[in-house]
Design goal:
Layout (H helix, E strand, L loop, with lengths): L4 E4 L5 H13 L3 E5 L5 H12 L3 E5 L2 E5 L13 E2 L4 H11 L6 E4 L10 H9 L4 E2 L8 E3 L10 E3 L5 H11 L5 E5 L7 H8 L4 E4 L2 E5 L8 E3 L4 H13 L4 E8 L6 H8 L3 E8 L6 E7 L7 E2 L11 H10 L3 E4 L12 H11 L3 E5 L2 E5 L7 E3 L5 H13 L4 E3 L12 H8 L2
Parallel strand pairs: 1-14, 2-13, 5-6, 9-10, 17-18, 21-22
Antiparallel strand pairs: 2-4, 3-4, 6-8, 7-8, 10-12, 11-12, 14-16, 15-16, 18-20, 19-20
Helix pairs in contact: 1-2, 1-3, 2-3, 3-5, 4-5, 7-9, 7-11, 9-10, 9-11
């Protein structure tokens, strides 16, 4: 078995890249976004904003955006196709709900199976109008409204950064105050960017309130490395013996670091170095050394802070001693694939004792994986998690359809080659 070593920098955070691009497109003047994630999902948002008139230039990982202003978006001449990007669809619905033109938004086969009602319902309460021929999924047509949006106080049934962000984006255009109250904290990148831009936002406990916004200033920002992308390399370094890896400039937003806390609870040797708390998003370097892991319980209240990392956490659990239980993760069934089913199927094929439950998994760890052929299910995070299992296995594991990693992490295989010795 090889070892993992060296120093790498993972690409920019996907969640922040989406949001920075949307705000820049609605700003007055020219904004610059550095370390932008030029992956398929974020490019879907970029193409949608370009279709509505934003002047956007991408040079490597630097994005220059000449914004249209709050009221400057134009009616696109074609349907907005955001391909596989659920973040694009849900956040853009919040923006489109407030516009004075009619537009249709759609996506690929996978995205057209994912629920949109959770976003549409609160936006309709604000006065937005939608039609869909397929119930609560894409394609959705955003209709021209007959009055301005009105602020609401909305209690979300589940903690969801996408739902919260869609409401807050629409709330920038709404008369009065718009508040979102969550049962548990979710990612707060939208709120952080609003505060960074000086917009009238207030946070009190689990409630976030935005007042009507008349102008967004142009800005410059540096997107930190994506901790969800870093997660694959962190687990690889932990489960491959004699490994030591440094990951530079990784985002350390507290709403995203539940993954690190769970791994440290399992016995992981992970140290945070050079932490910077002065930016609009905290970041730092991570030093990871191979470790003896033991099983743990991941509780429902922890899920919002590590939802995207569960596929690779399941791999860590499969290599840990003892039993790990993941609970309250039923939303994983509504991702690019049914991730609970996908993980259970693949791990069983690899000889792992795993029990699939309605809202989670029970995984009994073992020393090695059996030879197997596993599936990505067209899901980028499942594909990468299985690749990490493959690199840590003594036996041969074959994975189908790995092109889907381009959705979030085009450099994944290049960096993987760089760290393996």
């Amino acid at each position: 078995m090889t070892r993992v070593c060296g120093e790498i920098k993972v690409p920019g955070d996907k969640s922040i890249s989406h949001r920075a691009l949307i705000f820049a497109s609605l700003a007055d003047g020219v904004s610059t976004i550095r370390n932008f994630l030029a992956a398929d999902d974020c490019l879907a948002t970029m193409h949608a904003m370009q279709a509505m008139g934003a002047d956007i230039a991408l040079n490597g990982t630097t994005l220059t955006v000449r914004g249209m202003g709050m009221g400057g978006l134009k009616c696109p001449t074609q349907v907005l196709d955001v391909r596989n990007s659920g973040t694009s669809a849900r956040l853009l619905l919040g923006v489109l709900a407030a516009q004075d033109f009619e537009v249709q938004i759609t996506g690929d086969d996978s995205l057209r199976r994912r629920p949109m009602k959770r976003v549409i319902e609160p936006l309709e309460k604000m006065g937005a109008k939608f039609t869909s021929s397929s119930g609560d999924v894409l394609p959705v047509r955003v209709l021209r409204k007959d009055r301005p949006l009105e602020g609401i106080h909305y209690r979300t049934p589940l903690a969801s950064a996408q739902v919260k962000s869609a409401i807050l984006l629409a709330g920038m255009y709404a008369e009065g105050s718009t508040s979102v109250e969550e049962p548990h904290g979710s990612r707060d990148h939208t709120e952080n960017m609003m505060a960074h831009l000086g917009l009238p936002i207030k946070r009190a406990g689990l409630t976030t309130t935005i007042e009507k916004v008349t102008k967004i200033p142009a800005f410059q920002c540096d997107v930190p490395g994506d901790i969800s992308s870093a997660a694959f390399f962190i687990v690889l370094a932990l489960i491959v013996p004699d490994s030591e890896l440094v990951l530079k400039n990784v985002g350390l937003n507290p709403t995203r670091t539940g993954f690190l806390k769970v791994l440290q609870r399992m016995g992981a040797d992970i140290k945070i170095l050079n932490q910077n708390m002065d930016s609009f998003e905290p970041f730092g370097d991570l030093l990871v050394r191979s470790s003896f892991l033991t099983g743990t319980d991941i509780l429902a209240e922890e899920i919002p802070s590590l939802i995207d990392e569960i596929p690779v956490l399941a791999v860590a659990a499969a290599k840990a001693e003892g039993l790990s239980r993941i609970q309250g993760a039923e939303d994983l069934r509504q991702k690019e694939s049914d991730r609970l089913q996908a993980l259970a199927s693949n791990l069983k094929n690899m000889g792992v004792n795993v029990l699939e439950k309605k809202d989670g998994l029970e995984i009994k760890g073992q020393k090695d994986f059996s030879s197997a052929r596993v599936r990505s299910f067209g899901d980028h995070r499942i594909a990468m998690a299985m690749e990490i299992a493959k690199k840590a296995a003594q036996n041969e594991i074959q994975i189908d359809n790995t092109d889907c990693v381009n959705i979030s992490f085009p450099q994944f295989y290049e960096l993987l080659r760089d760290v393996l010795e």
